[in-house]
Every structure is written in structure tokens, then in C-alpha cells.
Amino acid sequence: MIDVIKIDELEFVKLIEAEEIAKRIQVIASQINTAEAENNPLFLVVLNGAFVFAADLLREITIDCDIKFIDAKSYDGVKSTGVVSLNAEKITFVKDRNVIIVEDIVDSGNTVNVLNNLCSQHKANSVKVASFLSKPSEIQYDITVDYVGFEIAKLFVLGYGLDYNEKGRNLPHIYQIRPFI
Ligand code: IMP
Ligand code: MG
């Protein structure tokens, strides 16, 4: 089992095991299956980072639903650029729908805030958020993460869909950056 990952000059150490992730996803999925049963939710998966979480979570969803994808990017390396670039021309499908945004991680909350506003502008009936990870100390917007996998500290993480400059998305566990001492 690999415990330390090296990419460029950075080292990452294991934070959350794949087995623990799988168990937690079952819990979130069953919360959603219960709470959203009457809502025919439209899951809006935020690419690229959420692709692994979405694949695991949505295969545990047993209620009526639709799934759509949107591209968003706000990170460069280990830092947020503060600007969310979106590929969102066709988001009119959210009209009258109960949208659940599926994110890999809520950090500053900037991306979710932009998507929330976009869904509201396009007349979604309701907007909720399911995020695999959340960094509560970093959230700078008045947003609620309705379904959350794990709350973590402010360190940069990768694996399970999350990347460092497009690397590490394929790792089955979550790794956190090893701070320089
Ligand atoms: P926010 O807009 O600041 O909330 O950042 C959200 C996006 O930045 C996420 O969807 C991720 O794609 C990326 N991101 C934030 N924190 C991390 C991290 O620790 N590792 C990898 N990507 C991250
Ligand atoms: Mg993302």
C-alpha cells in the first residue's frame, strides 16, 4: 500500500482510506434517497474533480433522478485563483428542477456560490449541495453544504478525483499535502 505520493517537489500523505470513503458514501446516499425521494432531483455534477465521487454516489441512488454535468475550474496548482471559469451555456435545463450540485470539495465556496446564483437565475425550483469534502474554516460565502462526506482542515488534498495540476485524480485514497517544516 502506497502511503506517500511525490509529485514535483511536493509530498502527500494518506488522510482518508478508500474503505472509509466507500462506507461514508453509502451513508450519504441513503440520506439522499430518504430526503429527496419526492423531489425527482437533478444532480448537477461539477467536472472535473467530482467525477469519482459522482460515479460512486450516484450508483447508490435509487430514487427517480436526472444527471447533468458542468465544467468549472478555479484552482491552479495548490492555490485558488479566485475566479471561477464555467462552461455553462446550456444550463437552462435547471428550470423548475430541484437541483443538487455534486462537488468534490467546497473550499472558499466561490464555485458553489457562482453555481447557486446561476441555477437561481435560470429558475431552478431549489438548489442543494452534496460535496465529498468541505473545508469549513475556509468558506467565505453564506452557503450550506446539505450533504457532506468529510470535513477537513485547510490543507491541500488530492486523490479520489481531486488533482494537483491534473495529477493524482486516479488515486483511490485521499492524500493531504505534507507541509514543509
Ligand atoms: P472553491 O471555489 O474555493 O470552493 O474551490 C472549489 C474548487 O477548487 C473545487 O471544486 C476543487 O476543484 C478545487 N479545490 C479546492 N480545494 C482543493 C484541494 O485541496 N485539492 C484539490 N482541489 C481543490
Ligand atoms: Mg471542483
What is the number of E strands? 10
β-strand amount:
35-45%
Q: What integer value in Å does the Rg equal?
A: 16 Å
**Which small-molecule species are bound to the chains here?**
inosinic acid, magnesium ion
User: How would the global form be characterised?
Assistant: globular
Tell me the span between the first and last alpha carbons: 25 Å
H-E order: EEHEHEEEHEEEE
Name the poorly predicted regions: none
What about the largest sheet?
6 strands, mixed
Provide the spatial order of strands within the biggest beta sheet.
5-4-3-6-7-8
Structure description:
The protein is an alpha/beta fold. It has helices at residues 18-35, 51-58, 110-121, and strands at residues 4-7, 10-16, 42-47, 66-76, 79-87, 98-106, 126-134, 147-151, 157-158, 174-177. The strands form two sheets. The protein has a six-stranded mixed beta sheet, sandwiched between helices. Strand 4 and strand 5 form a beta hairpin. Residues 46, 49, 72, 103-104 line the site of magnesium ion.
Write out key terms for the chains shown.
181 residues; alpha/beta; six-stranded mixed β-sheet; four-stranded antiparallel β-sheet; 3 helices; 10 strands; 21% helix; binds inosinic acid; binds magnesium ion
